[in-house]
Amino acid sequence: VARPIVFVSDFGVRDEFVGTCHCVMARIAPDSRIIDLSHGVPPQDVQLGALLLADSVPFIPSDAVLLAVVDPGVGTSRRAIAVETSTGGHLVGPDNGLLSLAWRALGGAGRAVEISSPDVVLLPTSKTFHARDVFSPAAAHLAGGRALDTIGPSIDVDGLVSLRLTEPEVERRSIRSEVLDADRFGNVHVNVRFEHLAAAGLDEVGAFEIGGTAGSIKIRRATTYGELRRGEYGALIDSRGWFAVIRNGGNAAEGLGVQRGDQVWITPAD
Amino acid sequence: VARPIVFVSDFGVRDEFVGTCHCVMARIAPDSRIIDLSHGVPPQDVQLGALLLADSVPFIPSDAVLLAVVDPGVGTSRRAIAVETSTGGHLVGPDNGLLSLAWRALGGAGRAVEISSPDVVLLPTSKTFHARDVFSPAAAHLAGGRALDTIGPSIDVDGLVSLRLTEPEVERRSIRSEVLDADRFGNVHVNVRFEHLAAAGLDEVGAFEIGGTAGSIKIRRATTYGELRRGEYGALIDSRGWFAVIRNGGNAAEGLGVQRGDQVWITPAD
Amino acid sequence: VARPIVFVSDFGVRDEFVGTCHCVMARIAPDSRIIDLSHGVPPQDVQLGALLLADSVPFIPSDAVLLAVVDPGVGTSRRAIAVETSTGGHLVGPDNGLLSLAWRALGGAGRAVEISSPDVVLLPTSKTFHARDVFSPAAAHLAGGRALDTIGPSIDVDGLVSLRLTEPEVERRSIRSEVLDADRFGNVHVNVRFEHLAAAGLDEVGAFEIGGTAGSIKIRRATTYGELRRGEYGALIDSRGWFAVIRNGGNAAEGLGVQRGDQVWITPAD
Q: Which of B8, B210, C216, C239 is the most exposed place for a label (fewest CB within 10 A)?
């Protein structure tokens, strides 16, 4: 049975980039289901794309081919790669670190090839749209059962670009963090996980002082929206494992005046 | 053959919420087609989500499982439910009224369960993303043929939350209505159906005076865009059965200065 | 095996228009894959929709039914058509030129019918949403194997509306062009193809002077983002074959101060 393809990119939904890739994959693997994980990664933000893909691994069908495209270096010498994990999974995308967090979550990169077989890539190959001409065909061929080593020449997995995440600065009862993203509901997600809270001795704190560029605000620990009064803020570990500030019936990001990349200080409120 | 799943939510398309739910469902019911009815319900607007789902019933495949998530009470004591209609259809979502208009359109709720079986819900279960951990698995199991009574314990259908719609105030030759929504094309849809027009004696009127907060405007009855001059307004019953103001080559909502929730008065123009 | 349906429209993703059409098609052709090429065509922009569909032809599965809806004349006397190309492909949409560039790319219109069979169109038929009631059913029936001549009465292909594109004004070493679109990344695409550059003697030029309403700017020829300095502009033939201005790590459309429909002059920079 055909394997599904899970597709993530920074292409957005306004243009035809995603649809064209779907067309290309449907030609090669007409029986493969394509699951659009998200195409809303902020343009060219490799780190957010990598985090999204890795955080999603527990929910992705185990036989899926992962196709990820956030590719500011398209058309340059950065390589187009297909990676096989030690557990037999496959990932396809640019060699810029985008896939690296996901293959770690999947047990590590076992082997890899550079996508270049002339019966895989579309010819002529655009210099600006490898998603269509290189990555989509490779993902579809793998989903259809083609062997990795027929996609292109083998490359050393130790030479693959691996992402180094921006880590928060953790001190005793204080964390200096960075806003990863604000989502549709205005929830603010920062680069802090439960283990950082624990390391700072903040894991049992009942309320936080959250400081942004425009001042600071006291925010109590919560577990969900419904326990907050209308307009009240709450802090919790979100469904992907990140520390997040939410606001019942409101937009926390707007309220705090923060956006992606901004620094946020987390201290106890008392 | 696997049943399709029709999915509606307020998740938008920027974030990965929808994609993650697709992944979860594809693991459980790999052969079920998932149809995204809309994920553009305004955030936390249970009434608009309920209306959209109910208005869509005539077009939804009759064997589909309906999955709807607009869930401001996620993680609180509001129940997660799966409902079987008297005609054998299934609906899955929060017990906040979101499903109630659709099950009425489908012949009424026959029986219901609270989604809680440990081999249905994902563990650990997030307090903020039941769409992923509770609703999607339940919908997928039902689509795959699993029996309703294995999803969780039976609950009394008479105790389910049922939505009461905001009704327009209908008088002789005057209706006080509320804007339900303005769509991509700027069409303004209000909570008035043909029967309200008829009850007010406005069903044969050739032109309306439409009054908003910024004054009123004469608008003739139309049946489609093409019969209007460029920039001209028209009033019609839209494809879902609601009274709507359209504008040829323009944005009626901007022109009238109205948005969702605003009051609009409808009277005859002459 | 069921044929896929490739769907393009100006419906956007906020409302349920696309999802409702998917529902209708899934009822009629439950085994057909529906590929959403794009629903981000600017509202009522028939020319951009037609170009998008035609430019995508090389990537679309050869057995696909093409369904396109950008339809400012919905509900008027403009016809709803299904066209069979001389090579056996099928296209469905309004007779307003939207399909014409694609059927030319597919070898020309062989025969056509007006969609009107009472067992094809949904009844009652909305005057404002033929995508749901007329086009989607026709596309799905064709994808399911139904013969063209059962969809409605035959019409003369020579009488079909055919689109005349806005052509650039090409002179010796100077082209007066029009902005077709600015995409998610801010890339500016104009109505100039390689053959226009060649006709103007600009195909070998190393740098261009690009003039817009707010002045002009020197832009060097590039092949991809990565060879440009951060913030630098480049000019190239894009992945669809159009002359485009890109900007590394920036938004070319904002930088140039141009938007869709604006005029742009292209001359050599030397």
A: C216
- Our CA-based measurement puts residue A252 at a distance from the nearest CA of chain C, in whole angstroms, of 23
Do the strands C65-69 and B215-221 form a parallel or antiparallel pair, or are they unpaired?
Answer: unpaired
For residue A128, the surrounding DSSP H or E stretch is: none
B117 with B150: CB under 8 angstroms? yes
**Helix axis angle, C136-143 relative to C17-28, nearest 10°?**
40
Quick: pLDDT tens for A12-69: 999 999 999 999 999 999 999 999 999 999 999 999 999 999 999 999 999 999 999 9
Residue B119, CA distances (Å) to A96, B17, B124, B151 in order: 39, 22, 12, 8
Measure the CA–CA gap between B188 and C29, rounded to whole angstroms: 33
**Inter-chain CB proximity A184 and B19 less than 8 Å:** no
> A91 phi and psi, to 5 degrees?
-130, 140
DSSP character at residue B3:
P
Q: Is B154 helix (H, G, I), strand (E, B) or coil?
A: strand
Residue corresponding to tokens 């929830």: A187
- The closest alpha carbon to C59, from A22, A233, A64, B176, belongs to A22
* Integer angstrom CA distances of residue C218 from B47, C215, C244, C256: 54, 11, 14, 11
CA distance A175 to chain C (A): 30
Q: Which H or E element spans position A85?
A: strand A80-85
Q: Which of C140, C7, C93 is nearest to B59 (CA)?
A: C140
pLDDT at B178: 96
Tokens of A244: 């997040």
Chains that touch A (3 or more CB pairs under 8 A): B, C
pLDDT for position C213: 77
Element (H, E) at A218: strand A215-221
Nearest to B109 by CA among B80, B89, B94, B138: B89
3-state secondary structure chain C: CCCCEEEEECCCCCCCHHHHHHHHHHHHCCCCCEEEEECCCCCCCHHHHHHHHHHHHHHCCCCCEEEEECCCCCCCCCCEEEEEECCCCEEEEECCCCCHHHHHHCCCEEEEEECCCCCCCCCCCCCCCHHHHHHHHHHHHHHCCCCHHHCCCEECHHHCCCCCCCCCEEECCEEEEEEEEECCCCCEEEEEEHHHHHHCCCCCCCEEEEEECCEEEEEEECCCHHHCCCCCEEEEECCCCEEEEEECCCCHHHHHCCCCCCEEEEEECC
Q: How many angstroms separate the CA atoms of B79 and A39, rounded? A: 32
Structure tokens at C138: 């026709």
**Beta carbons of B40 and C132 less than 8 Å apart:** no
Q: For strand A80-85 and strand A90-94, is the pairing parallel, antiparallel, or unpaired?
A: antiparallel
In chain A, residues with a C-beta closer than 8 Å to the C-beta of C225 are 72-76, 128
Cβ-count burial A175-194 (b if 16+ within 10 Å, e if not): bebbbbbbbbbbbbbbbbee
- The helix/strand/coil state of A27 is helix
Contacts of A107 (CB under 8 A, 6+ apart): A85, A86, A87, A89
Q: What is the pLDDT of residue C215?
A: 83
Q: Is the pLDDT of residue B270 over 80?
A: no
Phi, psi of A161 (to 5 degrees): -70, 130
- Which ipTM did the prediction report? 0.95
Note whether C255 and C233 are within 8 A (CB): yes
Sole residue written with tokens 């025969």: C111
> Inter-chain contact C40–A16, Cβ cutoff 8 Å?
yes
What's residue B215's pLDDT?
A: 83
**DSSP string spanning A173-189?**
TEEEEEEEEE-TT--EE
Chain Cα centroid distance, residue B95: 15
Res. A208 pLDDT band, cuts 50 70 90 = very high
- Joined together, the tokens standing for residue B176 give 């006080």
Distance from CA of B123 to the nearest CA of C (A): 31
DSSP 8-state secondary structure symbol assigned to residue A156 = -
Calculate the CA C64 to chain-centre distance: 16
